[in-house]
């Protein structure tokens, strides 16, 4: 059976931390679906089109990677895609506490889906999309934090 994993996130914007988790884990699975989740309660900084565009650009030509968007429960999306693994990155103990809650609830809802965690590379432990957004809002240079080849434009209406 194909080992399909879903890597869910908002990727607002995609960072080198996300890219690293994706590139390190791709060989663990037959297929990795990067799933851009649309959270109805959360207004994103970058548009869905921009976020999908960057992911598509970044992983174009990667046979095992698919980019998708979804709304609703991640476990439902996994079921639809035949995915038995949810991939998440861990930076800090705060991440762990947060992920433990979600992972255990997911496990209770769908016992045959396993959440798999990868520790982030030490140099990305403090890197988050929200910090990148803050730097950008304040006119700072975020290039070293985002994957090569991606250009972010500052928004003035956020
Ligand atoms: P979410 O809103 O679901 O947390 P994100 O796009 O912020 O979405 O993150 C998606 C996944 O990427 C999460 O598992 C998160 O822990 C992981 N991640 C985010 N930043 C990093 C990083 N710097 N290093 C490793 N993993 C990261």
Task: Describe the 3D structure.
The chain is α/β, with parallel strands linked by helices. The protein has a single domain, classed as Rossmann fold (3-Layer(aba) Sandwich), CATH 3.40.50.620. The chain has 5 helices and 5 strands, in the order βαβαβαβαβα. The chain has a 5-stranded parallel β-sheet, sandwiched between helices. The model has no long low-confidence stretch (mean pLDDT 95). The structure holds adenosine-5'-diphosphate. Adenosine-5'-diphosphate (ADP) binds at residues 8-11, 15, 17-18, 21, 88-89, 91, 95, 120, 124, 127-129.
Distance between the termini: 45 Å
Specify the number of helices. Answer: 5
**What order do the strands of the largest sheet run in, or round the barrel if closed?**
3-2-1-4-5
Overall CATH architecture: 3-Layer(aba) Sandwich
How much of the sequence lies in strands comes to: 15-25%
């Amino acid at each position: 059976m194909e080992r399909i994993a879903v890597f869910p996130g908002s990727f607002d914007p995609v960072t080198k931390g996300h890219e690293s988790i994706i590139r390190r884990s791709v060989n663990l699975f037959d297929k990795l679906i990067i799933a851009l989740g649309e959270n109805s309660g959360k207004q994103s900084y970058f548009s869905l089109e921009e976020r999908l565009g960057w992911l598509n650009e970044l992983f174009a030509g990667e046979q095992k990677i698919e980019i998708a968007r979804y709304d609703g429960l991640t476990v439902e999306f996994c079921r639809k895609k035949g995915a038995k693994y949810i991939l998440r990155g861990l930076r800090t103990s705060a991440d762990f506490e947060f992920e433990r809650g979600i992972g255990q609830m997911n496990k209770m809802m769908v016992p045959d889906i396993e959440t798999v965690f990868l520790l982030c590379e030490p140099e990305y432990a403090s890197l988050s999309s929200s910090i990148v957004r803050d730097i950008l809002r304040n006119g700072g240079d975020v290039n070293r934090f985002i994957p090569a080849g991606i250009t972010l434009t500052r928004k003035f209406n956020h």
